[in-house]
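Job type: complex structure
Entries:
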Amino acid sequence: MIKSLDPRLTRENIEENNLIAPLTPMDNWETYEVFHQKKRGDQHMHVGIVHAPNPEMALLFGKEQYGRRSITANIWVVKTANVFASEYDDADMFETTPEKQYREAGGYKVMDKINKYKKANKA
Amino acid sequence: MYGNAYIDPNEKANAMIAGEDPIKLAEFEARIARGEKIEPKDWMPKEYRKQLIRMIEQHGHSEIIGALPEGTWITRAPGFKRKMALMAKVQDEVGHAQLLYSAAETLGKSREDMTNDLITGKSKYSNVFNYPAFTWADACIIAWLIDAGAIINQVANAKGSYGPYCRALDRICTEESFHLKYGHDNVVTLATGTPIQRQMVQEALTRWWPPIMHFFGPSDKISQHSEILMRWKVKMASNDDMRQQFLNMYVPKIWDLGLVLPDPKLKLNEETKKWEYTEPDWDEFKRVINGGGPCNAERLAVRRMAEERGRWVRKALYNATEKYVTPLA
Ligand SMILES: [Fe+2]
Ligand SMILES: [Fe+2]
């Protein structure tokens, strides 16, 4: 029997070699991705996961794990299985090429023309 | 707390990268050298995955087991505010384990397998928790100095290369700063209190000093193995460097309170700027880590009891149509 400094544990009469059957897959359920919104008006941000048997409990665990300390306005949970993600190997598809200047404010330069026009017409 | 996983320095170093695709390995190492993080689905050497799983998993176990000696003191913590604070701290530590297990899961080891390896004694956890917290003052010393050691380790590891581990550690370090302040406040209260309180905290400090000196592990041998782990940003600082950093930050604070450390050799060498100390008893460290400490049996037995008694609840909530998917990040 375990004789602990903690009287509550000693009272449990725990065998020292209380071998138990191993946990089996899914014993800890599946995972949910948790999104946390700090305050109204902010974006929800991905903060991590929780293991839960259903969405309601995922919210409960999400609140304990990610909302117990910081200010929280709202959280979402989404089953990991329901998230589709791009591959890091395909990251080149996000590369911005120099030809994409036409999408940028900096791709439009008019001052040269204006100055040239003003100069030509002052004379 | 407590990220000081014990990585066996005697492992065959050459086996580490044997059989790896040299082009992929070079790309992987270049990414780390550029300061970029590795994410779960990226290609990584088998040994990188293995070492990280072991390290993060052991770190997670240390948080869980570390909650036991402190949790013991919740009902007996002096005063309402300290009870509330200790409850919050213990909840944080268990939360840290959740975050760490999640990070290890992204590398492909299930949480169930990690728990199995803990309760059968296959996985290790921080050796300090094989020692008991005899008095309230022991709980205060743990909260201050063991958490302080853990912070040094965690701040270093947070700059490592594996994205999910770094993110978990960033979150953890924020909470640790409360643990440290709370622990310091408690120790200062005792050390500046009545003669009996002072004696209590001095005795606890004397008891905890050897485990604290063990905390960062034995000096690492300079090996090809440890060099590769440093290059891969799995290991971020040598055990001796972290111990030096700890002594530098905390010995003066301990001495400020007029408390005595049970090591006559302990002093700062003004020339080398390094702390000198009596070499910790590493045979004792090995004996305890291999099961011979005062609390090893109790810690695992309690953990198994909790697992077994909670099992029916988890089973009752289990939905058989669900399928496990590895977390994304
Ligand atoms: Fe912690
Ligand atoms: Fe802590």
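Summary: The radius of gyration of chain B is 20 Å. The mean pLDDT of chain B is 94.
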